[in-house]
Amino acid sequence: MRSKVFRSRSVPARMWVAVLAAVLLCSGTAPAKANRPDQSATPDQPASRGKKDQKSNEPAKVKLKIQVTSPDDKPIGNASVYVRFNESGGLFHHDKLAELNLKTNQDGSVKVPEIPQGNILIQVVAKGWRTYGKWYDIETDEQTISIKLDPPPHWY
């Protein structure tokens, strides 16, 4: 009889495992926060982070300018330019392929906002021209890419 009463008052094993896991997780992160070098020694002063520290955590960025022309170097205006690149998903998420949809201006150029360096897919679609697509490996801070579109294939 006494064993039945003791069992009904005891905490299930699953609960003990959950409590133990929570304690271990909390105790493992506290020393990591205390040993961070970017925190100041006095609590009155806020920890300041310079641009140098922030840039080390972020992937390098690139400013692209894309120039779209015909084979005889005439600019092609109003062409659709699609730029695809890998974007970090964070700690628990996978990287994803992000896309920018842009249009060329009358002089055939388009400026791409800052995107991460690495493999970048550039596709160009313009009415009356063959569709263009190519992967580029970008490793510089600024780059101009010249694309010459071919005339469409002839249909007989």
Question: Which helices and strands, and how do they pair?
Answer:
Layout: H1 2-9, H2 13-34, H3 51-57, E1 61-69, E2 80-87, E3 96-103, E4 109-116, E5 118-125, E6 132-138, E7 142-148
Parallel strand pairs: 1-7
Antiparallel strand pairs: 1-4, 2-3, 2-5, 5-6
CA-based shape: elongated
The CATH level-2 architecture of the largest domain is identified as Sandwich
**Share of β-strand residues:** 35-45%
Largest sheet: 4 strands, antiparallel
CATH level 1 name of the largest domain: Mainly Beta
CATH topology of the largest domain: Immunoglobulin-like
Radius of gyration: 28 Å
Tell me the series of helices and strands, N- to C-terminal: HHHEEEEEEE
Mean pLDDT equals: 78
Task: Report what the structure shows.
- The structure is a single chain.
- With 156 residues, the protein is α+β, with helices and mostly antiparallel strands.
- The protein has helices spanning 2-9, 13-34, 51-57, and strands at 61-69, 80-87, 96-103, 109-116, 118-125, 132-138, 142-148.
- A four-stranded antiparallel beta sheet has the order 3-2-5-6, with no helix packed on it. Strands 4-1-7 form a three-stranded mixed beta sheet, with no helix packed on it.
- It starts with a helix and ends in an 8-residue tail after the last strand.
Q: Keywords for this structure?
A:
alpha+beta; Immunoglobulin-like; three-stranded mixed sheet; four-stranded antiparallel sheet; 24% helix
Compact summary:
The protein is of the alpha+beta class and 156 residues long. Helices cover 24% and strands 35% of the residues.
